[in-house]
Amino acid sequence: MKKVSVIGSTGSIGKKAVDLLLHNREEYKVIALSAYSNFALLTHQAKLLDAEYVVISNKEFYKNLKEELLGTNIKIEADLINIAAIPVELLIVAVVGIAGLEPVIHAIENGTKTIALANKESIVCGGKLLFKKAKENGTQIIPIDSEHSAIFQILENNGQCIEKIILTASGGPFLNYSNEQLKNATINKALTHPTWNMGKKISIDSATMMNKALEVIEAHNLFDINPNKIEVIVHPESVIHGIAVYPDGTNFALMALPDMTLPISYAMSWPQRSALSCKLDLAKQNTLTFQAVDHERFPAVNLSIKVLNSHSPDVYSIVLNAANEVAVNAFLTLQIEFLEIIEVINLAIENFSNYTHISSLSDIIYIDRESRAITQEFIDNKTCNQKSLSM
């Protein structure tokens, strides 16, 4: 049986991973599960899967978790680092944000050989350091993002001499909004994705297309490809997930239903494939449409290319990610308007200039912390100015 742990088992990706583990119990032995605050679901999952360890990141719920697990043999570890340090054959990382980076690096350093990674921020911020450690320790990183899973699968069979790769984007809930409508975009509308069922943060990222900006950086780091060879195209049906283009004009595309079960299953069973019921019926797929990204209305993608072509792409990738996390939270808490998300991120990038080299996890954490402080300062200033104008 393959030993497996899931970091972030109560989120949208984590729940699908747990479902797959439940349906294939003869193949997997679950070592550890973690959640941020949903102690009730974590307890339920741990009992169903007979997990050995659990972690609740928000310590306010530690007592609740302990009470729920009374009478079981399931042990509660102090934090994510502890369970990441337990070597397993497969670690599924499904947490959101840079919080996933440190556990991933600890897992690599402690002998985990395959990491199924849905935490794009680890790849965006970890960059060269993450993949250097993975190479040194013989760790295979399998992306779970549907677009990167698609490219990974295509290039695994025929990755030589590609001309470029294309990441598809649904366009999010505001694809057909005018600039005027975007000025008044609400939180509820931003959270209502037309194709995917996702958590709040990534739903807002999809609405701004910052998710695609992060995925461009992720693709650059994952596949070691020149950023100018990475293209984004809007494909609202979300049936084609990624395309590899070759010099002779041949395009290899991966087609599948817009269901995260597929890339999760592929990452879990790699290098084999498991049988699933998620079948694409082409006869029912009346149309497949594509359109160029409108960079005026959605400037985030160009921002990622600007970062990757900067004098210090590793540093500014961290700044971009940190600023986005702070700005998205500010939008969700009504501190800034929708269009101000990208504006604030751009200001943070333009005003960060006090670091040039990354050689350790501590460097990444420092840059992340400084970037957050700068971003929050811009947000606070905007809030103060708005209050002054309204008085």
Automatic annotation (TrEMBL):
Domain DXP reductoisomerase C-terminal: 255-373
Molecular-function GO terms, alphabetical: 1-deoxy-D-xylulose-5-phosphate reductoisomerase activity; isomerase activity; manganese ion binding; NADPH binding
Residues engaged in binding NADPH: 10-13, 38, 119, 121, 199
EC class of the enzyme, as a word: oxidoreductase
InterPro entries: DXP_reductoisomerase (IPR003821), DXP_reductoisomerase_C (IPR013644), DXP_reductoisomerase_N (IPR013512), DXPR_C (IPR026877), DXPR_C_sf (IPR036169), NAD(P)-bd_dom_sf (IPR036291)
Keyword Isomerase belongs to the record: yes
Pfam families: DXP_redisom_C, DXP_reductoisom, DXPR_C
Catalytic activity: 2-C-methyl-D-erythritol 4-phosphate + NADP(+) = 1-deoxy-D-xylulose 5-phosphate + NADPH + H(+)
Entry EC no(s): 1.1.1.267
Cofactor: Mg(2+); Mn(2+)
Superkingdom classification of source: Bacteria
Binding locations of 1-deoxy-D-xylulose 5-phosphate: 120, 146-147, 170, 193, 206, 211-212, 215
Keyword annotations: Isomerase, Isoprene biosynthesis, Magnesium, Manganese, Metal-binding, NADP, Oxidoreductase
GO biological process: isopentenyl diphosphate biosynthetic process, methylerythritol 4-phosphate pathway involved in terpenoid biosynthetic process
1-deoxy-D-xylulose 5-phosphate reductoisomerase N-terminal domain segment(s): 4-127
PANTHER family per UniProt: 1-DEOXY-D-XYLULOSE 5-PHOSPHATE REDUCTOISOMERASE (PTHR30525), 1-DEOXY-D-XYLULOSE 5-PHOSPHATE REDUCTOISOMERASE, CHLOROPLASTIC (PTHR30525:SF0)
Family: Belongs to the DXR family.
Cited function: Catalyzes the NADPH-dependent rearrangement and reduction of 1-deoxy-D-xylulose-5-phosphate (DXP) to 2-C-methyl-D-erythritol 4-phosphate (MEP).
HAMAP family, alphabetized: DXP_reductoisom
Protein name: 1-deoxy-D-xylulose 5-phosphate reductoisomerase
Organism, scientific name: Wolbachia pipientis
Gene for this chain: dxr
